[in-house]
Design a protein that fits this description.
The complex is a heterodimer of chains A (295) and B (332).
Chain A (H helix, E strand, L loop, with lengths): L1 H30 L6 H18 L8 H23 L4 H23 L15 E4 L2 E4 H23 L1 H11 L1 H6 L4 H23 L9 H16 L4 H25 L9 H15 L10
Antiparallel strand pairs in A: 1-2
Chain B lengths: L1 H7 L6 H16 L7 H26 L8 H18 L3 H23 L4 H21 L9 E2 L16 H22 L3 H11 L1 H6 L4 H27 L1 E2 L1 H4 L2 H15 L5 H20 L8 H16 L3 H13 L1
Antiparallel strand pairs in B: 1-2
The chains are: A mainly alpha (295), B mainly alpha (332).
Chain lengths: 295, 332
């Protein structure tokens, strides 16, 4: 029973992880850049919802569009003001560049909001739970899972059904060929960053309903997102969805196994260790991931 | 013998670089006599330590061109070996430090073997992962003090065997000697067969492979050398700070700092890591102590630090040394 409960909770978390990793995998697919600052976009999304709901005194769920807009603007700003200049340099400079952006945003948040742990405390769903049979779900987590799924489907539809989405895919497959067909690479890159920022902004807005926001929260989630992206295959959108679910389940189920066996080693302290190990094993054993096509 | 000659031979550098090295060395030797305060002395020790780390990273990261972001785990291995052996069995530093280096070497071969199946971004993230796994284990392992860390027993009298001194000057000279051993080693390394092989791999892996270079084995060797360097530094950190915990010797930010200093100074050059450390360590320390005093300004020091990283990686990925060389070429 404990296992099934953990499984269900894991699926809810997994849907959110998938949304966090979605932007990362799109950016990687379109322009071959690993965005270390992705977790900080999430962190700023959390703060946006926190402050909007507090200052305007509205429900945190209604503040979600604010975090989406913030994410899109942040993505565009980082691309046009910074990432574009990194593209000229070697891969190592790109890694350090996004790493610098990550540090900058972390300490900007620390400067602006201090190191306090903040969480949305009142709202329509906060503190309420739904019980179905023997299982109890927090409404906030349920909403996060469902809304993540909806956002994910919207983006998936956008990528696969619209002209812009197809242009994005073309750029990801072959940048040069796409530009010969009249697709503007620069604009595609910007769109990838906008989608990346927007989705992770929403994810942050959902997360703050049940998880504390603090300036260093990003690194935990960016490592999870890296694991999802690697497991799904770098650049694969379908892959990242299933990988997110799998990692969410792993992260919830392992501690329960540990609890059942009475061992400390699989305890909750290690739930992120499992994720790191999973990443390492996946990329070594199967570098192309579950559905990967790019390497 | 040939190797020793190579290590002390700086003749392929320009005159100005040789003179610079001599002046710099004289300054290092004379520094404690100049009557600097204890804060400046700490900064200098940190500078030498991070130069040593950076030189180690430069083998795999600079000459080999692999983005390695997990060096902190080897700092941790070096530091914990020295600290634990001293606390448990009272083993002197001079025995435990080499053992720490050996453990780091062994561990780096075990990790390096699967790690170097990977390339590019995959590799970079995987190095972070391995380092974080080790940190998580040490954070929760009660036997080694878990997150509380371990304190080294403080001896009443200065003790050379256990590297315990009252004055920082001794530590300063000790790390300076290590620094020079590292420098001479790197001077040999850049002219060694492995050094050339690595540069070839960095330029074009396929071409290197077609010339019969065992790419993976070369990378693993360079990775192990880098690990040995930082493990020595880690051992020094344990006896110098007399207290270690996973947050101070295994943190991701330490890995990043090591790589960053080498990169900022100029990767794949002998002076790069030294210049990088000479620039970033004082900046880090002085910004920290200057801005840290003002209550409202938490984080501003790191924001400046981060902005610097962003600017350098966007405009001159070859680092400060790259800028200097650019000017020299224009002048010539």
């Amino acid at each position: 029973m404990l296992i099934i409960d953990a499984l269900l909770q894991g699926i809810l978390m997994g849907l959110l992880f998938a949304l966090v990793a979605l932007g990362l995998t799109i950016i990687f697919g379109v322009m071959d850049i690993v965005n270390f600052a992705h977790g900080e976009f999430l962190m700023l999304g959390m703060y946006t919802v926190y402050w909007t709901s507090l200052i305007l005194n509205i429900d945190p769920l209604l503040a979600l569009p604010a975090s989406a807009v913030m994410g899109i603007l942040l993505g565009l700003a980082s691309y046009y003001w910074f990432i574009r200049y990194l593209l000229r340099g070697p891969a190592i400079a790109q890694l350090f560049g996004t790493f610098g952006l990550m540090l900058f945003l972390q300490y900007l948040a620390m400067f602006l909001f201090k190191t306090d742990y903040r969480m949305v405390e009142k709202g329509l769903l906060v503190g309420k739970s739904l019980s179905i049979g023997p299982f109890i779900f927090d409404w906030t987590k349920l909403a996060a899972g469902i809304l993540s799924l909806i956002s994910f489907i919207v983006v998936f539809y956008f990528i696969h059904r619209t002209r812009t989405g197809k242009a994005l895919q073309a750029t990801a497959l072959n940048k040069e060929a796409a530009s010969y067909m009249g697709i503007k690479t620069d604009r595609m890159n910007a769109i990838a960053w906008a989608i990346g920022g927007g989705t992770v902004g929403i994810a942050g807005g959902l997360l703050v309903n049940f998880y504390y926001a603090f300036p260093m929260v990003g690194i935990l989630f960016v490592m999870v997102a890296f694991a999802c992206v690697a497991l799904g295959g770098f650049g694969s959108i379908k892959g990242v969805f299933f990988a997110g679910l799998l990692i969410g389940i792993l992260e919830m189920v392992f501690p329960v196994f540990g609890q059942l066996m009475g061992s400390d080693f699989l305890g909750p302290h290690f739930k992120f260790t499992i994720v790191y190990l999973a990443y390492f094993i996946i990329v070594v054993v199967r570098p192309q991931g579950l559905f990967g096509w790019k390497h | 013998m040939e190797a020793l000659k190579d290590a002390f031979d700086f003749s392929d550098f320009s005159k100005s670089e040789q003179i610079g090295l001599i002046i710099f060395s004289l300054f290092l030797i004379a520094f404690p006599i100049l009557g600097a305060g204890s804060f400046t002395k700490t900064v200098m020790i940190q500078f030498l330590l991070f130069s040593l780390f950076g030189m180690g990273w430069n083998t795999i990261g600079g000459y080999g061109g692999q983005v390695e972001l997990g060096k902190a785990q080897y700092v941790g291995i070096g530091a914990y070996t020295v600290a634990l052996m001293m606390v448990w069995w009272k083993i002197p530093f001079w025995v435990s430090m080499p053992i720490g280096v050996l453990i780091a070497l062994g561990y780096s071969f075990i990790i390096g073997y699967p790690l170097f199946r990977l390339k590019g971004h995959y590799f970079a993230i995987a190095t972070i992962c391995t380092s974080l796994v080790l940190k998580d284990i040490f954070d929760n392992w009660d036997l080694v003090g878990a997150a509380k860390g371990i304190e080294l027993p403080i001896h009443e009298h200065p003790d050379f065997l256990y590297m315990q001194f009252k004055s920082d000057t001794y530590y300063y000279y000790f790390i300076m000697v290590l620094f020079y051993i590292g420098l001479f080693y790197m001077n040999w390394f850049r002219k060694s067969k492995l050094g050339y092989q690595l540069r070839m791999i960095k330029d074009d892996e396929d071409a290197a492979e077609s010339l019969g270079i065992d790419i993976r084995w070369c990378k693993i060797k360079a990775y192990s050398i880098a690990s040995a360097f930082v493990a020595v530094g880690g051992g020094f950190m344990a006896v110098y700070n007399l207290y270690i915990d996973p947050a101070s010797v295994m943190e991701l930010s330490l890995s990043i700092k090591i790589a960053l200093m080498a990169m900022l100074g100029g990767a794949a050059s002998l002076w790069g890591p030294i210049i990088g450390a000479a620039f970033l360590v004082p900046l880090d320390r002085f910004l920290g102590s200057w801005l840290g005093g003002h209550k409202g300004l938490i984080g501003v020091d790191f924001m400046i630090y981060a902005a610097l990283i962003m600017v350098v990686s966007a405009y001159q990925p070859r680092g400060i040394w790259g800028i200097i060389e650019q000017f020299r070429k224009r002048g010539a």
